[in-house]
Each structure stands twice: as structure tokens, then as C-alpha cells.
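1st attempt posting a full record on here, be nice pls
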Amino acid sequence: MNNAAQHIEALLFALGRPLSHSELQKQLGLDEATLRAALEELAQKEGGVTVVDDGREVELRTSPVAAETIERIRKEEYARDIGKAGLEALSAVLYRGPLSRAEIDFIRGVNSSQTLRTLTMRGLVRRVPNPKDERSFLYEPTTELLAQLGVSNVSGLPDYESVRSKLADLEEAYRQTEQRKNQEEPS
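the predicted structure (as C-alpha cells):
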């Protein structure tokens, strides 16, 4: 595989999102002909993942060879209840979101990576860029989740304003407690 094709594949894998042709050219310093040749090379490559190119954007997807296995595993995963962890994460995102994974971890007191992956795969939450930190994402509810809950927007959730107000009060009390602790600690 040529160098450009390797870099395209690595970038698509590392970012985990579709990239436009122009973005690939800009990020990798490629001209249009080199990009086209590298994408053709990637399209011919056989393996568990494949590059899908709609003429405008390119992304990594599982190859047709693995489709049956992936479908079986997804069905098994979707058949399971989201459990307490899923409900906790969804509640945080619905009533306090959008939130970063670190914020969700803090609220729940445990690592939420797998839970958020499951909720994202099920289409209940989506990752969006974090405007305050390019290195992280925010999680927010999807229209699918709102539809399943029978509301047209988050403000239609039971006791939405009351819960948000109580959460804001708890967060402020926590901040004040932390500030007092930091002031009392000897230097």
C-alpha cells in the first residue's frame, strides 16, 4: 500500500468519522490525482474494514465479508436491556447535557466509555464536537431517544426545569465545598 493510502486509512481510523475529499487533501497535503489513486487503492484492499467513498466524503466501515458477524453481534447487543448504567448516563445527558464523557464519568462515579458506546450504537445519544475543547466530544440526546420517550424536546421531560434547577444547586454547593477545602489546605 502506498504512503498516501496508509495515511488516509490511519486518519480515518484515528478520527472515527467521515472526512471530505477536500479535508483529506488539506490534512495530508495531497493533490486531487494522488488522493483519487490512494482511494482506489484502498477500495481494492481486502480485510475486515473497507473504505466507503460517496464521491464527497470517505469513511471506514466494516467489510461485507464481516457483515453477518457484525449483524449478529449488534442484534445480541440491542436485545439486551441498557441496564442501570445506561439509564444513569441517559438521565445525565437528558437533564444536564450536552456533556463530555469526563463529565458523565464524574456524575456517575465510574468510567462510562462502554455505556456511551452502547447508547451511541443504539442511536439514543450522539457525539458532537465540543466547542470548548477540540480534543473531546459532547454527548446529546437524539431525536430517536426523544421519540421513544414520547417528547418533542428535552423540556417536555417530567419535572425538567425542577430537576435542572436542583442539579445546578447541587453543582454550586459542590463547587463551594471544594473551594473551602482548597482554601483550608496548608500550602
